[in-house]
Description:
single chain; mainly alpha; globular; 280 residues
Amino acid sequence: MFLGNVIFDERKKQGLTQTELAAGICNQNIISRLEKHDAMPTLTVLLQLCLKLNLTLNDVFSDFASNANVEEHAVLVDLERDILLGQVGNVTAKFALITESQLKDNDQIIYTFLKGFLVIQSDPDTALFTMDKVLMLTQNDTYDIYTELAYLVKAKVYMTKQDLRRAGDYYGLIMQALQANLLISNAKSSELLFILKDIAAFYFASKDQVTTIKVSNRGIKLAQSKHVTYFVEYLYFYKVSCLTSTAPDFENQCRVGIAMATANGNNRIRQAIQSLLPRG
């Protein structure tokens, strides 16, 4: 069945007009054209329509498996970005769009990782167990970013358990994997910077200033080379917190960190860096 037919049938079943379905999502004309097979919605519109009609992506692409896989992969990528950035408000609804049994191998890894990541605080033992599943799926491949992300989750769990030794072991494994370079083929900049931010936080808490500065500088350099700002304000904060106020370029580094925090809307870190600047 075509996408337009699925939307039409479900809309009628729920007693909605085209205008009612479109409300808050798109204009009525888009729904009309969609049901006439005269247009394809953007991914954002499609996700919102599915949520409103209580459909999964598998429902709307049941006869087109490849299309369903492409759309579900896009949803997973969006989910991961939101979760790593701490934007978890609509996560449950987005997960409901995904049919786990239909996922391909790589997407199954992402799905499993995200499920485990979300329960680090609420159910740490389940998070550990889920990361073991991720490592089985990646076969502990050092050059798979999800191996490193699974180690990261394990480290974060042991931090919540206040087991700093075991947390350090996992952070050490990640450091070894990233020692030579950051060229992990399936890694996105946001993932690498999230990892480096977390490692810097660990060594900062451990009062290892040399390693904190080293990791922070590596993350800052990566962000500059990729022209992105994910988590960069944290890296500047950890770095300048380990420097003395008389260190060369200290004030400039603080001001760059403040600018990054402002750009990313992170008022807490902006204020923390501002507090390090000499008064007067």
